Fold:
Amino acid sequence: MFSPTRSRSVLLALVLAVFAGIVAASPASHARAVYPSPNCGTTIYKADGSKWTCTFDDEFSTTSLDTSKWAAWNGVNYNTGPATCYYDDASRLWVRNGYLNLAVTRLAKPASCSNGSSTMTSTYGGAVVHTQGKFNQTRGRFEARIQFGGGVGIHDDYWLYPSSTTYPGQAEIDIAEPWGAWPDTMSAVTHMTGSDGKDDGSWTPCTISRWSSGFHTYAVEWTSAAITFVYDGVKCGSYSGWTPLAGFASPAPFDQPFFMILQTLADDGSYSPSPDASTIFPAVTQVDYVRVWK
Structure:
C-alpha cells in the first residue's frame, strides 16, 4: 500500500509476520477442496498473439467466501497506522448476489488489535482477504472488476505481496489503490528497495472520474522486464528498468511468487485526510470477480 512516509522494511516484517501467524493458526484438518480448473471467462490474448492461460478464478457465485482460495484477517492489524482493525464478520465481510463485499465501519467504541508485535487501539473496523498459502504466482496478468467504496478517509487496495522474504528489501505491486479524498484519481503503485537502499518504485496517478460510482476493471501485466497497469482496457502506466540491491540481479525482486490481497480501511490522518462529516459508513467495496492468467 502506498505511503510516502511509511518504513517499508518495518512494514515488510509486520505484514509477513501477521500473514504467517494467521496461516499457521489455521486448523491443519482444513484440507483444500478439489475444484474444477479455473476458466476466467472469455479467452484473452497476449501482445504476441498467444493465449493467456487461466490459473485462478473466483466469480463469487456462492454464498460465502471460498476458503480454498481466500483467508481473512480477524482482530488484527499489520501496522500502527492507519488505525483500522480488521475483522472476519458478517458486518464487514460477506458474499452475496455474485459479489464479494468488504466494508469499513465506525466502531461503536474503540477496540484493540495486534499486529503481532504490539497492540493498537482503533475507532474503525475494516476487512482483508488474501491468498497467501492458497495461491501465489510469479508474473502474469492479475485482474479484478471492482466498485471501490468512496468517501473522505476511506482507503482501499487490490495489491500483490511476496510470499516469502527471499529479497531483504521491499517488493510490492499495488494494482489499484484508491484514496477517498481524491475521488477522480486511481493510484497504480510499485514499491521496491533499490540499489540505493531507498524505495525506488513508482506511483502513477490515473484519472477515473468518480471511481466509486461504478465498477471498473483493474489489471496488471507483470513480465520480467516491466509491470504494466491497465484500467478498463486502457494502459495507465508502466514500471521498468529497476535496479535491485547489491548481490541481486534484475528482475529481482519481481522474480518471486506474490499473493493477492483485497483490503478496505479508514485512515487516521497519517497518510490522507481522516473521515469527516461527509463520510458515509459503512463504506462498502464490491468485487465482481478476480482472475489471474499466466
